[in-house]
């Protein structure tokens, strides 16, 4: 039963299974559960929210369940973790003209500048969804 709500939540937030994200409260501050700020949903049908951490101990399950319920009730909201390409990986970005371009991440200054100031995307579809957002960033860059 909860799987239907989890699926809708993931669709509404453009999330996929095991995709990391941050949880923010209504004030825009990141929600920390036992000093962890990255999360993912590992099981749609079971509605399992997992804390992403390098530590051996993860937050208590009941705290994660409560956070998931607050997400579903829209007391918290999702901030997607930005895509950061690995060396040699293809990425997509929006040129100042609004055209979707692609490049291979080689670790050169241009790669890092696009990542930091404009935004890079894993898929062409993701880049297309963010054209207007990226054009606003290009306008800011032009003004400086």
Q: What would you say this structure looks like, in words?
A:
- With 144 residues, this protein is of the alpha+beta class.
- Helix content is 36%, strand content 19%.
- The protein contains five helices and six strands; from the N terminus they run H-E-E-E-H-E-E-E-H-H-H.
- A two-stranded antiparallel ribbon has the order 1-4. A two-stranded antiparallel sheet has the order 2-3. Strands 5-6 form a two-stranded antiparallel sheet.
- It is elongated and about 45 Å long.
- The mean pLDDT is 86.
Structural key phrases:
single chain, 144 residues, alpha+beta, two-stranded antiparallel ribbon
What's the N-to-C terminus distance? 52 Å
Show unreliable segments.
none
Helix content: 25-40%
- The number of strands is 6
Q: Report the structural category.
A: alpha+beta
Computed Rg: 17 Å
The percent range for strand residues is 15-25%
How many DSSP helices? 5
SSE order in H/E notation? HEEEHEEEHHH
Give the averaged pLDDT, no decimals: 86
Largest sheet data: 2 strands, antiparallel
What characteristic shape results from the CA principal axes? Answer: elongated
Major β-sheet strand ordering? 1-4
